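For the sake of transparency, this paper describes our internal protein records without simplification. An entry from our holdings is shown next, in its original layout:
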Amino acid sequence: MTMTTIAGSVLHAIGRTPLVRLRRIVPAGAADVLVKLEFYNPTGSYKDRMALAMIEGAEARGALGPGMRVVEFTGGSTGSSLAMVCAAKGYAFVVLSSDAFAREKLQTMAAFGAEVRIVPSEGGKVTPSLFERFKHEIKALAEEPNTFWTDQFHNSDAIAGYIEIGRELLEQTGGRIDAFCGAVGTGGMLRGVAQALREGRSGARIVALEPSSSPALTEGRGGAHSVEGTATGSVPPHMADKPYDEARAVDEAEARLIARRLAREEGLLVGTSSGLNIAAAIHLARELGPGRVVATVAVDTGLKYLAGDLYDAVPSR
């Protein structure tokens, strides 16, 4: 869609997001770091791509139709995106979420008309046991009549939505990408981008990321952390066959520091998972050196995290 086009609905505003080069926080002598600004999507997250692909895939197969409801468990961004898509298409949406996730996300889902059911966390942390409770409760909910469970961790339609990020990257860079890195939640984004880059004959190194406090990909164990949208404590099905070249763990404190620096030095307001992506991209840029290109994504907007502690350490002036 171009600026001269009138969109038929908000769903046609998903995708075609800008790509920017970081100017100030990448050290001298490093590769270029390019960041796809996925917060330009309607709900401020790349999950809009996945939500639309899953709903339209189900419609095309006849698994979802008028009068049915959609259900899912989610940390919030997927829920916000599904709630928006369901609102635009006229479906009821019931979502399982938790007090471990940003209040702004819970409020956004409710604002779109979703019925939000809270599963309590342990001390406000994202833990493997929280996801086990999610799985138990969603299975019972999905068995109720006239219900479609999007099942984002197993849904292959999600990959089709994320492939577009990779195709857009190839178009925007002219195919010049030496490495791409991204944090793993469901793993759909990393798998989709990897598929698009390889289909486009890119030789980019694909690097999967996770917080170091929950190193399921790198060490085979889960743990508690506060990087929403990532690291459920086990290897997600989309990552089972390792569609990446390398997995790296990133310290959450560094991710939070980078998120704050991005706001103050680059004018980019993002969340912790985006900080994790860009922290890893900077490490890769140092390793690759000048003349090379590292790409990653700004997952969502930092406006979703202002009520939490991510930006508490930023002093007023």
In short: The mean pLDDT is 92. The chain is about 35% helix and 15% strand. The CA atoms of residues 73 and 134 lie 6 Å apart. Strands lie at 19-21, 32-37, 69-73, 92-97, 115-118, 147-149, 179-183, 205-211, 246-250, 293-298.
